[in-house]
């Protein structure tokens, strides 16, 4: 049987953030509301 | 009739600047696209500096938290350079991380070249100190074999660090004579070293 000489993709493709990290960021972005009041910004989280 | 969504009709991917604008106007999916587009490059950049998966995750997360806050506050100044801006935030966070931990990235020694061989505190180790001491002792013994006038000049010059002017004043000879005695003294020392096959090289 012919040998397969193809290589596994290098681990550079695995250099990605974990799904949990990305989903945390997206949820954080959705929950964060910034309200400018006067000269100050107030951050609120809507869960 | 429903208005046509230009995003659907247009197959060309949106630029970073357009996505940032969409995000600022409240379109959360634009952030997903931005993260998906740049996550690999940013993650790779951070990992190449810290060599630790968990730290990379933390810095990646903190970077985007800063990005999100800045965009939501409307403080982002769009100049068509979203990725370099994000990379700079990550770079600053990496510096903060190293400052906090008070350490620099580890160098991995690959084969014949070792970076640590170039880094030293400048002092010799015990072996070299011992060799230096032995050489000084041997040289002192050889000096004792020289004629009195030559030995005196060499000792004053090398051990007492006197100038030839001072030597001439102390020995009562001219500067040229002192120079000549020094020269002959060194020639005689070399001759003795060659004759007895003495190695004084450290």
Give structural notes.
The complex is a heterodimer of chains A (47) and B (202). With 47 residues, chain A is an alpha+beta fold. Chain A has 1 helix and 2 strands. A two-stranded antiparallel sheet of chain A has the order 1-2. In chain A, a hairpin with a 2-residue loop joins strand 1 (32-37) and strand 2. The termini of chain A are far apart. Chain B has helices at 6-9, 16-24, 29-50, 53-73, 82-101, 126-144, 148-159, 164-171, 175-195. In chain B, 67% of the residues lie in helices and 0% in strands. Chain B is rod-shaped. Chain B is built from 9 helices and no strands. Chain B is mainly alpha-helical. The interface between A and B is medium-sized, with 20 and 19 residues.
Write the layout of secondary structure elements.
The complex is a heterodimer of chains A (47) and B (202).
Chain A: H1 19-31, E1 32-37, E2 40-45
Antiparallel strand pairs in A: 1-2
Chain B: H1 6-9, H2 16-24, H3 29-50, H4 53-73, H5 82-101, H6 126-144, H7 148-159, H8 164-171, H9 175-195
Helix pairs in contact in B: 2-3, 3-4, 3-5, 4-5, 7-9, 8-9
Attribute tags:
heterodimer, A: 47 residues, alpha+beta, two-stranded antiparallel sheet, 28% helix, 26% strand, rod-shaped, B: 202 residues, mainly alpha, 67% helix
SS-based structural class of chain A?
alpha+beta
The main sheet of chain A comes to:
2 strands, antiparallel
How many helix segments of chain B?
Answer: 9
Q: Over the alpha carbons, how many angstroms does the gyration radius of chain A reach?
A: 22 Å
- Mean residue pLDDT of chain B: 83
Helical stretch tally of chain A: 1
Q: Biggest interface and which pair forms it?
A: A-B, 20 and 19 residues
Task: Write down the overall geometry of chain A.
Answer: rod-shaped
Q: What's the quaternary structure here?
A: heterodimer
Mean pLDDT score of chain A, rounded? 80
């Amino acid at each position: 049987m012919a040998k397969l000489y193809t290589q596994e993709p290098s681990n550079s493709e695995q250099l990605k953030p974990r799904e949990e990290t990305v989903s945390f960021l997206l949820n954080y972005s959705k929950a964060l509301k910034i309200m400018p009041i006067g000269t100050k910004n107030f951050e609120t989280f809507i869960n | 009739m429903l208005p046509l969504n230009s995003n659907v009709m247009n197959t060309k991917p949106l630029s970073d600047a357009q996505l940032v604008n969409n995000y600022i106007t409240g379109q959360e999916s634009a952030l997903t696209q931005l993260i998906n587009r740049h996550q690999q490059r940013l993650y790779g950049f951070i990992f190449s500096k810290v060599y630790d998966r968990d730290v990379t995750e933390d810095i990646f997360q903190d970077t985007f938290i800063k990005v999100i806050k800045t965009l939501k506050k409307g403080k982002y100044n769009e100049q068509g350079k979203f990725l370099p801006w994000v990379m700079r935030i990550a770079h600053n966070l990496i510096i903060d991380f190293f400052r906090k931990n008070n350490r620099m990235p580890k160098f991995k020694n690959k084969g014949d070249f070792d970076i640590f061989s170039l880094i030293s505190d400048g002092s010799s180790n015990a072996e070299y100190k011992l060799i230096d001491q032995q050489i000084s002792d041997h040289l002192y013994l050889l000096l004792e074999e020289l004629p009195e006038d030559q030995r005196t000049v060499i000792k004053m010059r090398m051990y007492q660090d006197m100038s030839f002017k001072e030597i001439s004043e102390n020995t009562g000879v001219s500067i040229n004579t002192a120079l000549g005695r020094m020269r002959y003294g060194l020639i005689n020392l070399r001759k003795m070293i060659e004759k007895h096959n003495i190695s004084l090289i450290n």
